[in-house]
Amino acid sequence: MTQGKRIPSWFVYFFGSFGGILFGYDIGVMTGALPFLETDWHLTNATVTGLITSAVMFGAIFGGALAGQLSDRLGRRKLILYSAIIFAAGSLLSAAAPNDGSIFLIIVRIFLGLGVGAASALVPAYMSEMAPAHLRGRLSGLNQTMIVSGMLLSYIMDYVLKGLPNQMAWRVMLGLAAVPAVILFLGVLRLPESPRFLIKTGHPDQARQVLSSLRSGQNVDAEMDTIQSTAKQEASATKSTSMSTLISKKYRYLVIAGVGIAAFQQFQGANAIFYYIPLIVEKATGTSASSALMWPIIQGVILFIGSLVFLVIADKINRRTLLIIGGITMGFSFILPAIVNWLLPNTNPMLIVVFLCIYVAGYSCTWAPLTWVITGEMFPLAIRGRASGVASSFNWIGSWAVGLLFPIMTASMSQQAVFAIFGVICLLGVLFVRFRVPETRGHTLEEIEAQGTNHESQSALESVNDESK
């Protein structure tokens, strides 16, 4: 970037969003590729299928954690560029996997997951640091919209390419993920580093130039003062914070709430649908999974519409209320097909797919975007970095576990029973929100922290009273 040259804000936000599209594309593309891969390699082992599918999430567990550490040393922009390179290389290597090379493909997809995890952590952070304060909240929901747009794009490409021979179809599907990776790399090359990172690393003059190019006609001095003050507070907080701080009485309630929300979002089973919907339809109807690639597109459209609905209602309805309504909807969408199938064994097997669509609708405008909004609002400054990293790791662990275990579970029990288990987890998530999660909408970070402190104090008082009885 040429210093002093004004950067159009739409260009910054577009390529920030494009990172979300790339993330979503890489998550979704395996949905359509898997049926062709199974046919080409004659995969019948459910464990191998689960390992190939979930390998990206396993790599993402470490990619997100590493990105959080390295971005404070190397910068957000540079790490996004590295992530794009990993995306491109991993996609091409996946497409070039040798015949029956399950181990090779698993290892390559773990490598690819490093880029996925890094992008999921870096892109929202970069966007929020580049945006003016009044746009930061909206960008949380916009990032989710871009992710599901990437998923929908991958589903459409899978459908378009389904006419190719089996041995070629899955390779082209996986390899094409390199195209948006290259576009992201070329776009981010023109972007500046985040002003906050420049200030933290002792380059205030460069930070001022970046802000001046982005904030035409606005008070750059005031924003510089704010960023410098916040950077000093964060530096002080980081020095005095350790992992043991997260479980101290002062912060324990909020950490459990935030990490619990992040874990429940994945253990509720959403990725079982997003990764395996063609195989779910195949098992329900007996038709070929490669002929069921319209269903991922339907799920993707529902996800996209739901993300837009969230943008409308995000700041109008309490966070807890949305999570509870969404969780109940999702839970019964999973449980009711099992009940119906038990009472009426001859019911049309496509009933489960209809209920899965209802689940996706509820998930797309509640738990999917709200998880990251809440974890962004809930953690106090002193523990925000470490607590956010733990929450992200638990989220990816849940995503990996569901991707790995779903085909194994459906190989040993009916799909209705498997989804009923996920339904129970959804309802447990509702109870968790009801009793363990504070409301964050409309509250300052100080007020939220006070809620946590008061809750721990009240719990300690109740414990003392119980012991004295």
From TrEMBL:
Looking at the UniProt entry, the stretches that span the membrane are 12-34, 46-67, 79-97, 103-127, 139-157, 169-189, 253-277, 297-314, 321-344, 350-374, 394-411, 417-435
Establish whether keyword Membrane is in the entry.
Answer: yes
- UniProtKB keywords: Cell membrane, Membrane, Transmembrane, Transmembrane helix, Transport
**Where does this polypeptide localize?**
Cell membrane
SUPFAM superfamilies from the entry?
MFS general substrate transporter (SSF103473)
Note the CDD domains from the entry: MFS_XylE_like
Instruction: Kindly give the Pfam families that the UniProt entry links to this protein.
Output: Sugar_tr
Its main localization is membrane
Instruction: Indicate how the chain sits in the lipid bilayer.
Output: Multi-pass membrane protein
Family recorded in the similarity comment? Belongs to the major facilitator superfamily. Sugar transporter (TC 2.A.1.1) family.
What is this protein's record name? MFS transporter
